[in-house]
Amino acid sequence: MNTEKETGKHGIxxxxxxxxxxLGGVLRVIxxxxxxxxxxxxxxxxxxxxxxxxxxxxxxxMNSVYIEPDVWSHHRTECxxxxxxSLLSELILExxxxxxxxxxLLSELIVPLLLRGLLEAQELQHGCLPLPEDRCLQKICKALMLxxxxxxxxxxxxxxIGTSDRTLSRLFIxxxxxxxxxxATIVTAGGIDDPTCQWDASCDDCR
Length: 207
Description:
This protein is an alpha+beta fold. 35% of the residues lie in helices and 28% in strands. The termini are far apart. Mean pLDDT is 74; it is low at 4-14 and 191-207.
């Protein structure tokens, strides 16, 4: 089991299970299975070993725990948002402290308690947005995550990816269950605002 304190915005490819918990601000985690917006006392348990992307706003500081699959038996089958209690948070912080100091005096005691805490943690139903499989729609979703204040029309979004507004609207509802405007409203409520998104005009999937 590894623990880290991280900042900023980046992508990671990992072979381990991961827990991400923001210490302040808002953290968005994107995996191949969806997108999650996390606030205080929330953590995403990611079972997606294909990698993830992290975007933070406010105070871009979080704790992360990486768990080797062969050391943890659990009943969970997919990524989920967990309640991070004060006890669970303290266990994670102690693991981070030991790793930074390279003194593993309490790790043998902390690890079983931490794994049990994750196993018994309350699963929260909010914070998840489905990520479509279509690469063009993924680009729109990520653009909304990065610039939720964007109010461009369906026609303009369609021009960005080379498809009509009707086709875009139909595909968006089919793959996510949301209209593009409903998705934008939910994302805006998450508080992410980063104007650095760029479009990739090479996408052919929607044409």
